[in-house]
Amino acid sequence: MKYELYYWPEIQGRGEYVRLALEEAGAAYVDVARGPRGTAAMMKMMDAHTGTPPFAPPFLKAGKLVIGQTANILLYLGARHGLAPKTEAGRLWLHQLQLTITDFVVEIHDTHHPLGPSLYYEDQKAPAKRRTADFWEERVPKYLGYFERLLDGSGGTHVTGRRLTYVDLSLFQIVDGLRYAFPRRMKAFEKDVPGLVGLHDRIAARPNIKAYLESERRIPFNEQGIFRRYRELDG
């Protein structure tokens, strides 16, 4: 079965967490909206009046299943591609961690759009600067400190122990994105999360991920996605 991933074709965004899992698993998939008439096909699926239409991308078509929401997609893929524990308790714990990452991703986005996505960044620069200062003072230590503690106490080289899971892949993306968006702030903060930095580097060196990062399938970071580099927000 070849998966069909539906997400905006110009950005990494929330779809990137799904792409990383598919790439690590070596799963066959097509990034539909990046192909001819793909965005129109994506919009048509969301506008459907019958069945189980998704609210927004990313969503994944797996055979007859259409699965929306990043954490929900990863819950599905993790169980089928060895990227999640086999026990129900383990899978639920991993899903809980991914939902926590989802909360953090929202806060990352809100550093540059604290008043909402309907306004341009240029219309909310002053609130963005205040929001970013609080983000780095309070929120980054809270979230990344939590995952650093989990990694330190896992008894292995990954968040849940010895085996790689989709949460490790998502944390790679978090570190990579913060390095892009806030190079100065992140460089200063990395000394507080050496475990996560090491995890990032190990993930980047994995054969499937390394090949993906070096390929055209990896969309470069840009100022349309979640992680945006604005010099005035970087301390």
Descriptive overview:
With 235 residues, the chain is α+β, with helices and mostly antiparallel strands. The chain has a domain at 88-206: Up-down Bundle (Glutathione S-transferase Yfyf (Class Pi), Chain A, domain 2). The chain has helices at 15-25, 38-46, 70-80, 88-112, 125-152, 166-181, 183-189, 194-205, 207-213; strands spanning 3-6, 29-31, 59-62, 65-68. A four-stranded mixed β-sheet has the order 2-1-3-4, sandwiched between helices. The mean pLDDT is 97.
Concise account of the structure shown:
The chain has nine helices and four strands. The protein has 235 residues and is α+β, with helices and mostly antiparallel strands. The chain has a domain at 88-206: Glutathione S-transferase Yfyf (Class Pi), Chain A, domain 2, CATH 1.20.1050.10.
